[in-house]
Amino acid sequence: MIVWLFNESLSKPIINGLVRITSEDLEKFNETSWQKFRNDIVDRTLITNFFDELAWTEFDKRISEFNRKKRAWICRCCKKSLSQSKSILCDRCLDWIHLPCVGLSSVPRKKIWMCPDCADEN
Ligand SMILES: [Zn+2]
Ligand SMILES: [Zn+2]
Question: Which helix (H) or strand (E) element contains residue 96?
């Protein structure tokens, strides 16, 4: 499966355990490969052994950062982009949600606002 990360000549020694992926190799990952990991199509923990320690740390960091940013700009309810409508931040779970998705037409004049899920839990 590592084959689609690199070209075949690079992948073979990695699969055979002859070399490990280094931080330098990360730059050779193509965009399609990154996307597979970002979208969790591939379980990252299955490929830990292919990386050296430093490369793994860096790899993991890049994926996590990307996923965090992505999540931050998507409505928790409908999973669509926040730019589609006015949004509000839940002060408890820190998720952004479109106002209409929680039945609001404007931002409530409260210091602290909680999404329905968090309000239920409290
Ligand atoms: Zn929404
Ligand atoms: Zn919440």
Answer: strand 96-98
- Indicate if the alpha-carbon torsion angle 66, 9, 54, 50 is positive or negative: positive
Domain segments of the chain as ranges: 2-72, 82-121
Q: What is the pLDDT along the chain (122 residues), one digit of tens a residue?
A: 566 666 666 677 877 878 888 998 888 877 777 777 776 666 777 788 889 999 999 998 988 888 777 766 889 899 898 988 999 999 998 889 999 999 999 999 988 999 999 998 87
**For the CA of 87, the nearest ligand:** 1
Distance 46 CA to ligand 1 centre (A): 33
Do 96 and 83 touch, CB atoms closer than 8 A?
A: no
What is the Å distance from ligand 2's center to 105 Cα? Answer: 18
Cα 116 to Cα 122: distance, rounded to the nearest angstrom = 10
Residue entry with tokens 């839940």:
90
- Rounded CA-CA distance 1/15 in Å is 9
**Architecture of the domain made up of 82-121:** 2-Layer Sandwich (3.30)
